[in-house]
Amino acid sequence: MQLLRRGDSGPGVVEIRSTLRRFGLLPAAAVDEVHEDVFDADAEQAVRAFQQQRGLITDGIVGPATYRALREAGWQLGDRMLALMISAPMSGDDVVALQERLLELGYDPGRAGGVFDEQTEAALRKFQREYGLVPDGLCGPATLRSLRQLGRKVTGGRPALLREQELLRQAGPRLRGKRIVVDPGHGGPDRGVVVAGVAEADIVWDLARRLVGRMTATGMDAMLSRQEDTCPTETERAAFANHAGADLVLSLHTDANRSMHAQGLATFHFGNGSGATSTVGEALAGFIQRELLTRTGMQDCRTQARTWELLRLTRMPTVRVEIGYLTHIGDRRRLLDPAFRDVVAEGILVAVKRLYLLGQDDQPTGTFTFSDVLARELERGGAQAI
């Protein structure tokens, strides 16, 4: 779709302004005071407020992600019948409400990410079957009435978060056997950020290969989400990870900015700004951020929650790592150094190990090497952890 930003005009702007006004983000104005087809300063401010609420980049520009979020925010549970659509899954705030209600009743639709997927359908069918309804997986009037009549079965916390944490605890501290999808961003004809002949796709491909090699050596089942000459969509990458039954997904990127002074490291996990989040993803993002900052001395651009497609469509904890800005000469010089990429790969591996340790027998950040991790993984029985 065409990007809409301040200064643009046309029917698309009318639609955006109408939607923002419906959400209470853009006040009503007299007809003679505003041109409804103009993307003015008030509209930009309203878009930024909406983006901040929904875990999007607050750039004031309506692109595909913001337009999708605006569309999804307009649905309330009961506005339409919900069902599994394989080719084009239904998504929206009504799906979030359904998922949260199922979680409260003790069923497991997965993370309340707002996408009606196979796991949501399975949870809905189970509810229908146990409540004496036709288990057709359709959320229509009869199912809605039943959902609203029942009280909560799960109390004392957010069920999805508790499930995610319990799965992590059950996984144990060893890396051996853990299935990890490493996702090098872009690829093939999509080169990502390109500065001075340096392409993001090439940098993250090399880094991903280094990371997968180290993970495989520890006994992990590590796989790449793409080939060197391919560029799957975010949806396809998420589907690959879901089909593989991955325990974690690590997406690798570099950043860019119009300012040559922008630099540093940031990590991202799923979170929609309204309470739905991935606690394990947030914990892993924090471990990666601290390990890499300690090892590289890069500027801290913090850990942040986002609703990007890969983060919200994957059923497992997913972290996106933005390693430096290719538009910054210092970051670019570092990323071109193979030794630096080795340091980054080592830091990410150690961060994953720390996640599974759950705080037991841990050591100061930045003190372990790949050799240390490998030696402890190969110890008899894996009884000792770093």
Largest sheet features: 6 strands, mixed
Number of strands: 8
Bulk shape: globular
Cα-to-Cα separation, first versus last residue: 49 Å
Strand proportion, as a percent range, falls in 5-15%
Q: Give the overall average pLDDT.
A: 90
Return residue spans where pLDDT drops below 50 for at least 5 consecutive residues: 382-386
Helical content stands at 40-55%
The helix/strand series, from N terminus to C terminus, equals HHHHHHHEEEHEHEEHEHEHHH
Strand order of the largest sheet: 4-1-5-8-6-7
Cα-atom radius of gyration? 23 Å
Q: Structural class of the secondary structure composition? A: alpha/beta
Number of helices: 14
How do you describe this structure in short?
By secondary structure, this protein is an alpha/beta fold. Helix content is 44%, strand content 11%.
Description:
There is one protein chain. By secondary structure, this protein is an alpha/beta fold. 44% of the residues lie in helices and 11% in strands. The chain has 14 helices and eight strands. The chain has a six-stranded mixed sheet with strand order 4-1-5-8-6-7, sandwiched between helices. A two-stranded antiparallel sheet has the order 2-3. Strand 6, helix 10 and strand 7 (300-306) form a beta-alpha-beta unit. Helix 8 packs across helix 13 and helix 10 (279-296) crosses helix 13. The chain is globular. The termini are far apart. Mean pLDDT is 90; it is low at 382-386.
